[in-house]
Amino acid sequence: MELELGILLALATLFLWGGGDFLIQRTTRKFGDWETTFLIAAVGTVILTPLAYQDIIRYLSSVTIIVVSIIASVFVIAASIFDFESLKKGKIAAVEPLLALEIPTVAVFSFILLNKGLSAFEILLISIVIIGLVLVSLKEYNFKLLRSKGLEKGVILMTIAAILMGGTAFFIGYGSRITNPFFINWFIDLIITISIAIYLFFNGNLHHLIRNTLKFPKLVLTTSIFDNLAWISFAAAVLYIPITIAMTVSENFIVVAVLLGLIINKEALRSHQKIGFILALVGTVILCLSI
After folding, report:
1. Is the dihedral of CA 280, 283, 289, 290 positive or negative?
2. For 96, which of 52, 137, 140, 249 could close a Cys bridge (C-beta 3.0–4.6 Å)?
């Protein structure tokens, strides 16, 4: 029963991340990258405080928990910086496939820090899913990230971002295991809210953010709820299934994002994307049935 619950939570994360990614794209276009990150974290802090306050004193008395929570917060902020810069400088078609690097990154962290390895069959299935996700996310037939004069702009930045995001997923998952899904996400949201609020204040953008928020309250609230629920769901999933497996299942949000683009933007699914969709779906289903 626990395995089934873990898989269901990972699947819920998949759809929440897929929908959240779509909403975040719309929100960043109206508010900006840092402002959107701040709003998501601020709303998360408010929502999660009643759910986490009873455990605050108990968990913050542990040095280990504080260190893990701070590391997770640093990973989130650092990953956001590189992710945003990559999307600004590079083409989405060139950098988006690199997000699949999150999965092996989580696997490496799990092996090194938790001594949790994968079987040969699990590695094979995860590899199939990664290949499928890369194919799905490629919107152009040009599969070469290399240009005549070097790497496509943003590729190195997104590679770093994907590795940092994998670290984020690992430490949130591990933090959830030594605390609970509500506390670890509350702590991270609180740190991000304070850090970016200071940044926006000294840049003189805080009052503009408040004014714009009042113009689009529904978009802000919906985006924030989707993203926070996604991370809570992921943090809960790893309580029942291995972090790497939960990440592999949840990473299929890339497929959901592509499908949303098809439905809403009426985009056409190309041949290589169809192959990738099948690979990612079949690999994920078999992986879920094998654990």
Report:
1. negative
2. 137
